[in-house]
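User: For a benchmark we're assembling, each entry needs the component sequences followed by a predicted structure for the full assembly. Here are entry 17's components. Please fill in the structure.
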Amino acid sequence: MPMVLLNCDKDIPERQKHIYLKAPDEDSREYLPIANAATIPGTLSERGCAFCGAKLVIGGVLKDTIQMIHGPLGCAYDTWHTKRYPTDNGHFNMKYVWSTDMKESHIVFGGEKRLEQSMNEAFDEMPEIKRMIVYTTCPTALIGDDIKAVAKKVMRDRPDVDVFTVDCPGFAGVSQSKGHHVLNIGWINEKVDTLEKEITSEYTMNFIGDFNIQGDTQLLQTYWDRLGIQVVSHFTGNGTYDDLRCMHQAKLNVVNCARSSGYIANELKKRYGIPRLDIDSWGFSYMAEGIRKICAFFGIEERGEALIAEETAKWKPKLDWYKERLQGSKMAIWTGGPRLWHWTKSVEDDLGIQVVAMSSKFGHEEDFEKVIARGKEGTYYIDDGNELEFFEIIDLVKPDVIFTGPRVGELVKKLHIPYVNGHGYHNGPYMGFEGFVNLARDTYNAVYNPLRHLAGVDIRDKAQETPVIQREAA
Amino acid sequence: MLEDKIDDVFGYVQERCLWQFFSRTWDRQENIDGVVDQAVAILTGKAPNKESPLSRLHYADATIMVGDLKERFPWVAQAGESEIREVMDGLKVRLVDTAITRSTNRELTHHLY
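Assistant: Structure for entry 17:
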């Protein structure tokens, strides 16, 4: 029976449609897990909210933009700097957090004046910043505050500023995925094609769906510079508000995270005829493939081969050192959605790791089509997994390391299973050639960490032996 | 024999190629037709079409695929034009069936992105 009803789900049998165990000689099309559906009552979901999807994942990455959260303070704090996306201008986005700090009286009497005052205060306090995104949240959406009207008024009063509004309260949609969608479509409708930038290369592209986690974008930018490709806009790693207004000027859209950002790539293709190329930026073999495809599109194949040869010579011996020691290790990946299909084959091919279970918080059925096509038989594929399911799956597959977020990570640490931060990374960047060596190093340090074994030993019991873990220097 | 070769190529595409799983049926159909046609052109020694941005995109995907297929499956280099066409036609049918016709992805036909 390929769809699995776990013991912990016996009282919520609907969960069976969300958990798939890939088996040999069966048609996986018949067993696509239901995804991007409302969380089933009775299950404690690990999902985030739609507002978080817009702000934390996409908008909050920008390095020159005030992120005004129109709501209670917690909505701002809980979506601030937890994703670890630095910038090359001193990490402006991670240093500051903005909120209208809505209180009971504002909810009762309306918050639009409060919002206008907060927007003006923020621009006054930071006169060098001229761009802002305003987000509605659950309470301000419920009371009907018109953030777009307020933004228009502020722009009328301050002609040198530009403001974008995201009308996506936390309750809109089933997960953070809805926030990705609202921001993507809002941006293409309102801001793309409102500015022209200087084009300095005949080879131009937008790099879409990479959020500079611990420097991913900046590492990849060194490749594009060496290839002579101008990145018109980064959506949104280390990106600027105004560059994103110029997305229509690129000749190619290169998409990494198709889940959070595929919408704008589709719209850019539909409206401006800019083709969409999906690549995987994690992993040696995938990165080389992505560079080859981009270069083939522009007809600069030789440059691409030279770059790949140089990077491979520099980083492959290091990768192979880790591969030798990680061969056969078992990994679980419990992240948002796309990293399941980005990583399952790359860690298998490049590091010899076996991925035994994968869970997606906000992936759609398209993501499960991709990961089931790429993933191994005997592996569990889970939509919107909850804590009890995670514990049961751990018993079934016994992973050596779990790539997940800090919240779930702290839970699995209690079982003496190491976790690596699959969202914000431990010590990234993880993209590109150098980045995948970093991922390998963090995986090695997790799998061979002696502390996790020692933590399971009760030193009062003389009969228990202390395990000896052999860990070498790379 | 033919089915085995289609299995080889289909297995490769399933494992490596994101273009088969784009957002909507029409995107998937466009990519399957475009990439496979460009791959046939490259494999049969014809000049690939690079006139439009979309055809250059499909060429970029196809040229990587052809390189990988030659490396993985020795029979590819030995195959004549008619055999290449048969295999790739079979691949197209299999991909359309898997990624479009029988896909249970509920978003595939939504008219908006």
